[in-house]
Amino acid sequence: MRRKFGVVCHVKHDKGYWFVLDEDVRRFCHVSHWSEIEMPKVGDTISFELGPARNGGPDECVKAKPAQAPGADALVSKIITTEIEGVKVVRTEAI
């Protein structure tokens, strides 16, 4: 699966989940799909794959991890940065 990039826009630390802006879509991400000990913060850019939603909404984030500085993910994608509702959004397009 192709990795995508998005920006964390809402975090519920006590519930163990957050939402990520991916282009114009707000996607759910649960801590069980996170690679790190500490949860991300609002404004952090993460990379992820898409998996089926639990509640019939848009596909959710799985295999999520902090976005790396240009590396393997950047080699297979073109990174595009835009701003939506005052939040910096990073997305990718296949090269």
Walk me through this protein's architecture.
With 95 residues, the chain is mostly beta strands. It has 1 helix and 7 strands. The protein has one helix spanning 72-75, and strands at 4-12, 17-22, 25-30, 45-51, 60-66, 77-84, 87-94. The mean pLDDT is 83.
Question: What keywords describe this structure?
Answer:
95 residues; mainly beta; OB fold (Dihydrolipoamide Acetyltransferase, E2P); 5-stranded antiparallel sheet
Q: Please tally the β strands and state the result.
A: 7
CATH superfamily: Nucleic acid-binding proteins
Q: What is the level 1 CATH name?
A: Mainly Beta
Structural class: mainly beta
Q: Please tally the helical runs, counting DSSP H or I stretches of 4 or more residues.
A: 1
> Major sheet: order of its strands?
3-2-1-4-5
Shape: globular
Q: Tell me about the largest β-sheet.
A: 5 strands, antiparallel
Enter the CATH topology name: OB fold (Dihydrolipoamide Acetyltransferase, E2P)
Q: Uncertain spans, ≥5 residues at pLDDT below 50?
A: none
Q: Could you give the topology of this structure?
A:
Blueprint: E1 4-12, E2 17-22, E3 25-30, E4 45-51, E5 60-66, H1 72-75, E6 77-84, E7 87-94
Antiparallel strand pairs: 1-2, 1-4, 2-3, 4-5, 6-7
